[in-house]
Amino acid sequence: MVFKGNPGTGKTLVASLVSKIYKEEGALSKGHTVSVCRNDLVGVYVGETAIKTKAICQSASGGVLFIDEVHALNESNDTYGMEALTTLIYEMEELKNDLCFIFAGYPKQVDEFLKANPGLQRRLNIVLDFDK
């Protein structure tokens, strides 16, 4: 899923509700929400990012992984952000039966982010715009 909107429009709240609804419907086993941003996913040395990102995905398994301000992963085109994104895409396939990924951020920045990675764009079929 993709949630586009400015701060204070309810993206995080709706992500929490999605996890509870999916749990009640049997689509997720636990129904919890793990909220992260770039700093939670990206390491400080080469190789650490993939390990951190995979561990976060594992901790979110059974629920929703809410990645806020996702556009920060490729704004500066640094290798750490790209490593996190590559790991997220891999984990989307590995954990697709029991983890919902929600990528969130400002509308314009999220649109640019998705254009930069067609593989990711194909995997995110639900897009919600949050207007204030």
What does this structure look like?
This protein is an alpha/beta fold and 132 residues long. The chain has one domain: 3-Layer(aba) Sandwich (Rossmann fold). It contains six helices and five strands. Strands 2-3-4-1-5 form a five-stranded parallel sheet, sandwiched between helices. Helix 3 packs parallel to helix 4. The radius of gyration is 14 Å and the shape is globular. The two termini are 19 Å apart.
Keywords:
132 residues, 5 strands, 5-stranded parallel beta sheet, single chain, Rossmann fold, alpha/beta
Task: Summarize the SSE layout with pairings.
Elements: E1 2-5, H1 11-24, E2 33-36, H2 38-41, H3 48-60, E3 64-67, H4 79-94, E4 100-105, H5 107-115, H6 118-123, E5 127-130
Parallel strand pairs: 1-4, 1-5, 2-3, 3-4
Helix pairs in contact: 3-4
CATH class group: Alpha Beta
Shape: globular
| Adjacency order of strands in the biggest sheet | 2-3-4-1-5
Order of H and E elements = EHEHHEHEHHE
What value does the average pLDDT take?
93
Q: What is the radius of gyration?
A: 14 Å
Number of helices: 6
Residue share in β-strands: 15-25%
The poorly predicted ranges are: none
Number of domains: 1
Number of strands: 5
Main sheet? 5 strands, parallel
Structural class: alpha/beta
Terminal Cα separation, in Å?
19 Å
Assign the CATH architecture.
3-Layer(aba) Sandwich
